Amino acid sequence: MAYSLQTHEPVGQLARQPERKIQQILVVDDDGPVREMLGRVFAEEGYSVWPAADGADALKIAAATQLDLVLLDLGLPGKSGWDTFEELTLRDPLLAVIVITAKPNQLEVAKAAGAGALFEKPLDFPALLRTAAELIAEPPSARVARMVGFNKKYL
């Protein structure tokens, strides 16, 4: 029998394992270094990252890509973060969105809008990664309950 040199498991068993879907994450931030850092952190965790510098770019990418999660900065040039949030969630009401902001006092607005979570800068990357994974895995029924106010787990 053949064995994998990495896992020491029979090769036949490896061939039968289901292929894992690579999660698609849109990172929207007008600050290039922040956008690149977020992209690098998520890419290193195995996510496919789509960067966008503003709301218009974000909406174009979202229209062409089946996204699993959006990391959305509020301080965007042109179309604001909240306007972008509204358009993204009108197109896909169950799309998980994590609001990222340096603006104070956005928690209640994020709750009311149905955001999956809100993170203030500077970011806690382990908590952000954990929350992103949880939101992506969240069943649609739980996401609807959270959006209508029955479950505020992440906010």
If you had to describe this structure to a student in words, what would you say it looks like?
Strand 3 (69-73), helix 4 (81-91) and strand 4 (96-101) form a beta-alpha-beta unit. This protein has 155 residues and is α/β, with parallel strands linked by helices. It has helices spanning 11-15, 32-44, 55-64, 81-91, 107-113, 125-137, 140-147, and strands at residues 24-28, 48-52, 69-73, 96-101, 117-120. Residues 1-6 have low confidence and may be disordered. The protein has a single domain (21-147), classed as Rossmann fold (3-Layer(aba) Sandwich).
What structural keywords apply?
155 residues, alpha/beta, Rossmann fold, 5-stranded parallel sheet, disordered N terminus
